[in-house]
Every structure is written in C-alpha cells, then in structure tokens.
Amino acid sequence: MTRPEAILRKAGENAALSAAVVLSSREKGEAREAFLAPWAARANTAARRAEEIPCPFRTAFQRDRDRIIHSKAFRRLAHKTQVFINTAGDHYRTRLTHTLEVSQIARTLASALELNEDLTEAIALGHDLGHTPFGHSGERMLNRLNPGGFTHQAQSLRIVDQLAKDGLGLNLTLAVRDGILKHSKGRGPIFAAGGKAPATLEGQLVRVSDIIAYLAHDLDDAARAGLVKTNDVPPAMRRVFGDRGSSRIGAMVDDLLTHSAPGEGAFKLAFSAEMEAAMSSLRDFLYERVYQHPRLTTSLDEANHIVEKLYLKLSADRDLLLRLYPAAGAAAETEGIDRTVTDLISGMTDRYLLNLYQELFWP
After folding, report:
1. Rounded to whole angstroms, how far apart are CA atoms 191 and 198?
2. Average pLDDT of the residues of the chain
3. Is residue 173 part of a domain?
4. Half-sphere exposure (Cβ direction) of 216: Cα atoms closer than 13 Å
5. Which of 256, 274, 298 is the last residue of a domain?
6. Domain with 238 in it: what CATH number?
7. What would the mean pLDDT of 123-131 be, rounded to a whole number?
8. CA 280 to chain CA centroid, nearest Å
9. Which of 38, 34, 36 has the alpha carbon at shortest distance from 262?
10. In this structure, are 200 and 131 located in the same domain?
11. Digit-coded pLDDT (tens) for 300-324
12. How far is CA 63 from CA 23, 56, 105, in A?
C-alpha cells in the first residue's frame, strides 16, 4: 500500500476507505498535503475566477504551474534583461534565470517550513511575466509614457487574466493571482503589512525569495561586469553575507528559517534584526553602486530612448500597430490606444524590440 492510501485509510477510520478504493493522482496529491503545516494553503480548497473541471492527475496549484511554464510570456523571459542587457555577455542573469532562482529558493524554504511547494512554485514562476524589455528601466519608461501608469506586477496579473492564450487568459487560482500581484517591493519593506501583503504564507515566501535572489545575483553580476569589487562591499556586510552569491543566499535562507515561527494565532516569517538591517544596507549599496552606475545607466538610457520612440510611433501609426498586433483594433476600442501599445511593447523581448527599432528607423 502506498503512503497516500495509508493516510486516507487512517483518516477514514477503517470502514469507508479500503484498499479497494481507487484514487485519482490528483486526490493522492491532495492527500499528501495533510502533512503540511496547519497554516499552509491546500489545493483542494483553491478557487478560480471561473470554475472548471478538476484535472484528474494534477492538483489545482500544479495545474497553474504548468499553465505558466507553457505560456508564451514565460518563454519570452529568456530574452529580457534582469539588470545587464543580455547582449553584454552569456553569463549575466536574464529575467528567466532570475525567475528560476527565485523559484528554487522559494521551494527550498517552503519545504523546510512545511508550506505548499506547488503553490509557492507557481507564484514564483509567474511573478515576473509582465516585465518589460530592459528590466526596471523599461518599466519606469512605460510608466511615464502611459497616462494610466504601468507596473510589472499589475501587468503580470493582466497577462495571466486577459492576454495569455490569445486573450483567453490562464484562469489561475486566486491564491496564485494574489501572490503574483503582491510580490514586488522595490525599496519598500521586506515584509509588507495589511492589504499589501500576499494573502498566503506561500505568497509572502516568494516576495522574500525574490529579494534574496536579487541581492545575491545582482552583486555577483556587477562584479562580473567590473562595476564593483569584493573589497568595495563594506566589511560589516561581508561578515554577514560572505563573498560569494551562494554564501549570501545561504546566510539569508538560514536566518529566515531560524527566526520564522508561530506568532499570535498565525505563523510569521521573520529575519533577525541584524540580518534585516544587513539586507537593507546591501540593497542600498546595489542601488547606489550598481543600478545607478554610469556605465549601466548610459546603456539603459539609450534603451529607454528606443522604447519611447517606438511607443510614440506605434501610438500614431494604426496600420503598423495592426501589422504587429492583429488584435490591436478590438483592444484599442475597449482598452484605449495607450494600454494596447503598452501591452505590445511590454511583451517584447530586448532583441525583438531592438530589431523592430532598426527596421523602422534604420532600414
């Protein structure tokens, strides 16, 4: 007898559930979630905006994960900038490799804390689907150009709800949608409060894993690019994190697992005061010494100029817009031209945008 069948037999107290009962793979997966912590999310209670027949062999969260992985938006992340424009070298992180690193850190933490790994993975894999070409620099440019504003987290939700699958959307569970929308923190607090915090601990874990990942790998990439040297990092931070990306990740993961614990009526994710202060200091260091470094901002300023020229060109040339985006006619009628152009540009990869710019302005 398999372990899930044994669990269900015990839960049925001898009678109703016997060895003759045939369980679907999905039900066995849901049964295994009985071992999770009391505060973990359960797939068998997950809701969607539109009801659908359950998958016979995957839980609801596993189904969400697969829908995200098989989406076009996920594949495009391979050619979108994380910090360094990916034509600069083969070993710099892209938006896709960042996403995979976040997912792996989050799954490690979820397993150790007995939270739902499938939900955690689905949120992590979908959290940056709406990111623009050229990273946060492109995001800020689209936010300036679009009168309605733009954030990558809202665009990620827009993709899974409306744009994916040729306008049908992915119909993800509410828990995954919530985690995607509320994952971003910028320079805000590591742990959000109130309505800004993800509703599930799994969503909160992805939010934390996102910052763990970029604090480790952005410094690593900056050193590879020659923007900073190991000795540039203040000694106090080096004592906490060490000098390698792996040691930085290990230090933050170990500290979170050590200090997270049940609080007043709920489980609370937490770092030690020393670690949280060190993480904030490292984030400030990255903003001052890396993200605002002249070598980086010069190339991103040039990229932003390209984004702006394309935005204005597409907004004014309806025929061109329809050629590139056949659904633009109907979309512009319901959403407006600015949102339609923003959807198109934000979905472009770096290389597609650069090739299009060359075709239109340097034929």
Report:
1. 10
2. 91
3. yes
4. 22
5. 298
6. 1.10.3210.10
7. 97
8. 20
9. 38
10. yes
11. 899 999 999 999 999 999 999 999 9
12. 18, 10, 21
Helix axes 337-346, 328-335, angle to 10 degrees: 130
Question: Which amino acid is present at 311?
Answer: Y
Average pLDDT on 117-135 reads 97
Q: Assess whether 109 and 9 both reside in one domain.
A: no
Residues in the chain: 363
The dihedral built from the CA positions of residue 70, 71, 72 and 78, taken in this order, carries a sign that is negative
- Segment among 6-20, 80-94, 315-329 with least mean pLDDT: 6-20
In a domain, 276, yes or no: yes
Query: In this structure, are strands 267-268 and 261-262 parallel, antiparallel, or unpaired?
Result: antiparallel
Distances (CA, A) of 252 to 127, 242, 258, 276: 21, 11, 10, 9
Torsion over CA: 152, 158, 160, 166 (sign): negative
Cβ atoms within 10 Å of 146's Cβ, excluding its own: 17
Q: How many domains does the chain have?
A: 2
Domain boundary among 298, 317, 348: 298
Check if the beta carbon of residue 94 is closer than 8 Å to that of residue 82: yes
pLDDT greater than 50 at residue 20 = no
Shared domain for 27 and 67, answered yes or no, is: no
d(CA 121, CA 249): 18
Domain extent at residue 14:
3-35
How far is residue 95's CA from residue 101's CA, in Å, rounded to a whole number?
10
What are the tens digits of pLDDT across the range 192-224?
Answer: 888 889 999 999 999 999 999 999 999 999 999
